[in-house]
């Protein structure tokens, strides 16, 4: 009985941490990411994505911050994949934050493969993207519009993609 209570408590704490909401006021969420035209993201396969060019051309960039151990992230992944496949005008990226000690690149790749994710996966090793966008929990979805304007920043996918340029 005691073991069941401990297990249940650990599960509740883990789920709460995974689906945590940002703390602090809305002012901490940036309204703009300072990007240059030469801003790029490099995915796990080594492909360089000219994300600054996408934004300069008015093409939205969707950043989905997730972790392999996050149940909510794994549950949301098929919906993100559907968005990626059905809305080719959106540039969708999975972003996994953490140092080499904290995040195993092979595990990220294996999890993405197991989930059938075909959109690029980016490792934010130095947490620069995570910090710049005030990411405080996973999953977090950020949609960037022209010139880095933050169009959306929340813990779930938006209901209306057309309002966000998608």
Automatic annotation (TrEMBL):
InterPro entries: Redoxin (IPR013740), Thioredoxin-like_sf (IPR036249), Thioredoxin_CS (IPR017937), Thioredoxin_domain (IPR013766), Thioredoxin_ResA/DsbE_sf (IPR050553). Pfam families: Redoxin. The keyword Signal applies. Residues 30-166 form the Thioredoxin domain. Residues 1-19 form the signal peptide. Keywords: Cytochrome c-type biogenesis, Redox-active center, Signal. It is found in: Cell envelope. One of its GO terms (cellular component) is cell envelope. One of its GO terms (molecular function) is oxidoreductase activity. One of its GO terms (biological process) is cytochrome complex assembly. CDD domains: TlpA_like_family. This is Soluble secreted antigen MPT53.
């Amino acid at each position: 009985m005691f073991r069941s209570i401990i297990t249940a408590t650990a599960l509740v704490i883990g789920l709460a941490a995974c689906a945590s909401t940002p703390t602090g006021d809305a002012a901490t969420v940036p309204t703009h990411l300072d990007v240059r035209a030469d801003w790029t993201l490099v995915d796990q396969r080594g492909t360089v994505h000219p994300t600054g060019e996408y934004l300069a051309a008015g093409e939205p960039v969707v950043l989905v911050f997730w972790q392999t151990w996050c149940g909510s992230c794994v549950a949301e992944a098929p919906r993100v994949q559907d968005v990626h496949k059905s809305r080719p005008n959106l540039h969708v990226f999975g972003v996994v934050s953490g140092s080499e000690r904290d995040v195993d690149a092979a595990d990220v790749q294996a999890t993405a493969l197991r989930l059938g994710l075909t959109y690029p996966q980016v490792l934010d090793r130095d947490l620069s993207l995570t910090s710049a966008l005030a990411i405080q929990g996973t999953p977090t979805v950020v949609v960037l519009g022209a010139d880095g304007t933050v169009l959306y920043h929340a813990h779930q996918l938006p209901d209306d993609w057309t309002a966000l340029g998608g």
